[in-house]
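Structural prep section.
Before we set up the soaks we want a predicted structure of the protein with calcium ion in place, mainly to decide which crystallisation condition to try first. Input record follows.
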Amino acid sequence: KIPLLIDTDPGVDDALALLMAFADDRHDVVGLTVAAGNVGLDYTVRNALKLCEVAGRDDVPVFAGTPDPLVYPAEDAAHVHGRDGFGDVDLTPSARKAEAEHAALAILRLSHVHAGELTLVALGPLTNIALALKLDPTLPQRLKRFLVMGGAINGHGNITPVAEFNIAFDPEAAHIVFSAFPHTEVADWEATIAHGLMHRDVEKWLAADTDKARFYELISRKTRLWSEDSRGEYWYAADALAMAWALQPEGGIHVEQRPLSIELTGNRSRGATVVDWNRQTGAPDNTTLLIGYDQGRFEAQVRGALGL
Ligand code: BDR
Ligand code: CA
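Run finished without errors. Recording the tokens verbatim:
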């Protein structure tokens, strides 16, 4: 099996991505490293542990990362995911605790344990991965794949007019990461928009008689209502699409390779992902950008995650 390490800030769409990863029999989730982002670190760690419990995967170690962005404070996304990040439905926390090891150190250690084999998928702000890179810049050499949910490759942001949440939450971390990795696979917000899930389909799937569907119906209720009110008939599960691609990278996929860098300053553009579409900078193509993914396969992967 392919070892998979997931850096995540659960988060309702993170939860769906994690269920997808656990359900995939070609991959073995070797750990969850947890970032702050959608909500504060105490909640994202608690949610990661709860998700493992619900998935029957209490064997998967959970490592807490760093509570704040590297340089400047940032606002969370509690208005999307609920104050507790899982829809404010009073879940009983898992009895398990996070490991003592810091997420950044766990990333480095696991990159040695699974050297040359490991796929690292980042579903939240890139703070932990930036710290790991500062501690050991040779990290990229030991990864087989590195995939990020983040960015807005044509400037259609979701948290500012031009920036996407995961990058805008900690732009310095994103800058460190995209500068250090020779190659990153990027599933951005615009790919998410191109692969919406119809609310009426999602509601049908979530009505199924499985523990995972019941749990997911509960934690996603608030965000799905918010999404229907503010965005219309499609629901956008960014992290789930990124994970779909991470798990099934072959066939039915349209990608482009381009240089990508992060805007750190600017009155309106901080946190933007600047894609050099016309290759004017001479910088190397450091990213593979997801443009299109087989929608039927994505939806089948979502149903599989829910135990359908
Ligand atoms: C990203 O931001 C978060 O709110 C989601 O979990 C996802 O990772 C989408 O912009
Ligand atoms: Ca996320």
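Observations: DSSP finds 13 helices and twelve strands in the chain.
Flagged for discussion at group meeting.
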